[in-house]
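Justification of resources, computational component.

The compute hours requested in this renewal are based largely on the per-chain cost of generating structure records like the one below. Each record pairs the submitted sequence with a full structure-token output. That output is archived, and it is also reused by downstream analysis tasks.
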Amino acid sequence: MSDAKTLLTKSTEAVEVPPTKSSEPREFSALSIRVNRQTYNLALDNRTSLLDALRDHIGLTGTKKGCDHGQCGACTVLIDGERVLSCLIFAVMAQGRDITTIEGLVSSDGSLHPMQQAFIDHDAFQCGYCTPGQILSAIGCVDEGHAGSADSIREYMSGNLCRCAAYPNIVDAIMQARDETRKA
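The structure output for this chain reads:
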């Protein structure tokens, strides 16, 4: 027992405590990102996710933080028209690209995007938490040409989870809006 204590004492004396994350040097970048047709000039830590930049630095809270691991789809935005999980990319990676969030879908006259209206028409949401990501993913699904059938929609929307299980209504909404969405 005395040997174990001696080893313990020796090992604790030799251990150096690594610096905490807050004392690590951070690198900041000045970046310009275009969100919903508006340019934002920001100075952000290089490790800031696009999701956190949108919510915490720009104030667009429609994009939801669900799992923060790219597994639920709540943070889906469109970048240059393609679906992207904003929790999985750094804000600096979006520089020079067009980002669309749920707030950017409403037209200048205040009318809803056809997909937003279809979600209302089909009651394709319950609690609403996943709805912004579902709608943006649905627009991406249509634009990518994956909305030809209910089975195809289910397959290509499978990365967006709805804890309230409104999936049949979501599929119906996408089917309603797909032709209008292609034109929008």
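The first strand starts at residue 28 and ends at 35. The beta strands are 28-35, 38-45, 76-79, 82-85, 98-100.
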